[in-house]
Amino acid sequence: MLAARSVALLFGACLAVSSAGAAHINAITVDGSINPASSDYIQQAIALSEEDGAAAILIELDTPGGLLSSTKDIIQAILNATVPVVVYVAPRGAWAASAGTFITLAAHVAAMAPGTSIGAASPISAGGGGGDQRDEEGERIDVAQQKAEKFTSAFIESIAKERNRNVEWAVRAVEEAEAITQDEALELGVIDLVAANRAALLEDIEGREVIVDGEPLTLVVAGAAVREIEMTTLQGLFNFLASPDIAMLLVMAGLLGLYVEFNQPGLLLPGIVGGVCLVLAAIAFQILPFSWVGLLLILAGMGLVAAELFVSSYGLLLVAGLGCFLLGGTMLFDLPETSDLTVSFWSVLVPIVAGFAAFALLVIYAVGQSMTRQQTAGVSELLGMVGRSQTPLDPEGRVFVRGEYWNAHSDETLPADAKVEVTAVEGMRLRVRRATSGG
């Protein structure tokens, strides 16, 4: 009996040790732009993986690109990580464009799913600011763009060398915006393998030796438990707001809400919604680098559209305001640092401005109609009304109009109970004449 109990205790202890030492990997999904929120998410996930003893951290990546500053922070975290970082461009149809190319190349293990692509890492800078020069043939050179390209070329070259990947292709991805499929990337030595799914990926990299923190490390990940690390609520909100398209929508929705509230005071709801949208837009502007010139142009456009209500410009102010909206929208996030983050012109900006224009025209039309419509309330409503004299008018007397008794004055003598028509309102007295019709 004692021996049986000892065996049971020994077996339980072995299970406990086995369970405590069971390997696990952490996994995160980055689906969208590379911005301060997603950068913070990746860095925190790497730090957590280092703390909890994960065998590796898996980053499933699908991004069109993003901010170079945020990309730099992510690259630093990956290159200095003490836990293996596996970047997997997935699912099928995903891409690691621009900033995603840097992140994939920096990983200890770089993998892609079938039907994915990588590349087009050229910096986009339509803002300028570095001055222009001419080459030997007299062609114009954008110095700011050239400086950004040289910097990013050197950056991606150093990453590729660190991970023993194809340096020549990495440089072409920046200088020539070259993009390739997963099979081409594998053939050129840009990535380590192509895997159909996560399970196949972990099986394929089992036993692979990588250099982590300067020391060789053999990956033991096959069959390991996968722990998903989700974005915090705040990170999710910031990641949502870090889209220039969303920020532009919030700005226009906020301005539209205030526009409605100013035209119809007391509605409250449009003003509250507009205020909330502008607060969220202000948060987005703290996340994304933006141009004050673009923002001021949008505000100027709002002012010109509002001025159309009070100035008869035959639509010129409205057209000028809409032009400011379009110009300001294209410049709002057009800074050298933003790389790929710009407002979508045809799919977002043009529909927004068109919708705002339709609403403004509707308001202007309604205001114009109300100004030409005959007044139906107030003292001026009495003009043209027909009533009856309660006393003789010679020339003063009293009349009954619109259910009320009024003091009245008539230029001709009228008997009591005569039909009278109101011709003017003079304070608390009416000027009347004999009515020719109505009653």
Distance N to C terminus: 117 Å
Q: Tell me, rounded to a whole number, the average pLDDT.
A: 83
Output the CATH topology of the largest domain: 2-enoyl-CoA Hydratase, Chain A, domain 1
User: CATH homologous superfamily of the largest domain - what is it?
Assistant: 2-enoyl-CoA Hydratase, Chain A, domain 1
Amount of helix = 40-55%
Shape: elongated
Report the major sheet: 6 strands, parallel
**CATH architectural label of the largest domain:** Alpha-Beta Complex
What is the C-level CATH assignment of the largest domain? Alpha Beta
Domain count: the total is: 3
Low-confidence stretches: 1-21, 126-134
| Alpha-beta classification | alpha/beta
Radius of gyration, in Å, reads 36 Å
The tally of helices reads: 14
Q: Note the beta-strand portion.
A: 15-25%
Q: Tally the beta strands.
A: 18
Biggest sheet: strands side by side, in what order?
10-5-3-2-1-13
What's this entry about, in short?
The protein is α/β, with parallel strands linked by helices and 439 residues long. It has helices at 2-20, 36-51, 68-79, 99-106, 143-162, 167-175, 182-187, 198-205, 233-241, 244-263, 269-287, 292-307, 316-331, 345-372, and strands spanning 24-31, 56-62, 85-89, 95-97, 109-112, 117-119, 132-134, 140-142, 179-181, 193-194, 209-212, 215-218, 225-228, 386-389, 396-401, 404-410, 419-426, 429-434.
Explain the overall architecture:
This protein is α/β, with parallel strands linked by helices. 47% of the residues lie in helices and 19% in strands. The protein has helices at 2-20, 36-51, 68-79, 99-106, 143-162, 167-175, 182-187, 198-205, 233-241, 244-263, 269-287, 292-307, 316-331, 345-372, and strands at 24-31, 56-62, 85-89, 95-97, 109-112, 117-119, 132-134, 140-142, 179-181, 193-194, 209-212, 215-218, 225-228, 386-389, 396-401, 404-410, 419-426, 429-434. The chain has a six-stranded parallel beta sheet with strand order 10-5-3-2-1-13, sandwiched between helices. α2 (36-51) packs parallel to α3 (68-79), α5 (143-162) runs antiparallel to α6 (167-175) and α13 runs antiparallel to α14. 37% of the residues are buried. Residues 1-21 and 126-134 have low confidence and may be disordered.
